[in-house]
Design brief:
alpha/beta, Rossmann fold, five-stranded antiparallel β-sheet, globular
Length: 318
């Protein structure tokens, strides 16, 4: 199970690059006979690859960042010796928009749908970008359209099934499975979730669905559609999902323009840092990244990674 500690505001997003450790032997030639007692072993060192972005005290993206501006904490080990530190070369998005159409959001559903339509209409139109729209209510998740939804007509969204229970975590699992099927190393998987954060009927738990989100490297941009400005359990759920996945928590009042701008700014300011895997002391490695000079910096990415994610991959099979 994932253990993410919210005492720290710094979150890391991690992707393991599997590298097999192996020994290579060759048949000795006569000239090598004298060396038979000293065989050569060749091995490859496992490497951790972290993708993240940083914001300042005003929640603005930090464009200028040096590798001595931060330290990575991997399972409480302090990492400062980085193999590489560069800007991310990811330029394309694979986005799933999730629209909560359950009973608890019906009074605000019209605003929610309007914002979703505007967001879709303003989305990028690159040939490598994917955009899918799902809604969830009652007992299931409903596919509105898949992969290319930029010309989705408003009446089609307005005709979504609505009312009933809220299978929030089940819907996130469906979104994660959809993103995993179209996973590519040069594409940034993103879930834009419009919801009040309440879940009333899901079969899967929050921790289980977060495992899946972490395993594919997706980021959740959670848009809180609740009408109240006071803290609620649902708002806390949305904030934790966003923070643990390395995304952002936003409010419906921010508007679709701000939401999409945040996604694109985060994409363009993302960095990649790599370091030697610190050791197999546990399957799940918690990750934090802390500022070393400017304490106002916040780092956004996944809260950890699995050293061996085969058990996660097996869970993703339909």
């Amino acid at each position: 199970m994932v253990k993410c500690f919210r005492r720290f505001f710094s979150i890391m997003f991690v992707v393991m690059i599997p590298c097999a450790h192996h020994a290579v032997f060759a048949e000795p030639s006569p000239s090598e006979a004298d060396d038979i007692t000293n065989p050569t072993y060749h091995s490859t060192v496992s490497e951790v690859r972290l993708v993240f972005f940083a914001t300042d005290e005003h929640n603005h993206n930090v464009q200028e960042l040096k590798k001595d501006d931060f330290a990575v904490i991997d399972n409480e080990r302090v990492i400062r010796d980085f193999r590489g530190f560069t800007r991310s070369d990811t330029t394309n998005l694979n986005v799933v928009v999730l629209i909560d159409s359950s009973e608890s959001v019906l009074p605000r559903l019209q605003t929610e749908i309007t914002d979703a339509v505007q967001l879709i209409s303003r989305s990028s139109s690159g040939p490598s970008d994917g955009l899918s729209v799902l809604s969830f209510s009652g007992l299931g998740t409903h596919v509105v359209c898949s992969e290319d939804c930029r010309d989705l007509p408003t009446p089609r969204i307005l005709s979504l099934p609505r009312g009933g229970a809220t299978p929030l975590f089940d819907a996130l699992e469906t979104a994660a499975t959809l993103l995993a099927k179209r996973s590519r190393p040069d594409v940034w998987p993103v879930v834009i979730l419009f919801s009040d954060g309440d879940d009333t009927i899901s079969k899967i738990s929050r921790r289980e669905v977060l495992d899946k989100i972490l395993s594919i490297g997706a980021q959740i941009y959670a848009v809180d559609v609740s009408g109240s400005g006071s803290p609620s359990n649902g708002s806390a759920v949305l904030q934790n999902l966003a923070n643990d996945s390395g995304g952002r928590y936003l409010r419906i009042s921010d508007g679709p323009s701000s939401i999409l701008d945040h996604v694109m700014d985060d994409l363009h300011s993302a960095r990649v840092v790599t370091y030697v895997y610190p050791g197999p002391d546990s399957d799940f490695h918690s990750i934090r990244i802390l500022p070393s000079r400017n304490l106002n910096l916040k780092f956004h990415s996944r809260c950890g990674y699995y050293h061996d994610s085969r058990h996660i991959a097996s869970q993703e099979k339909p």
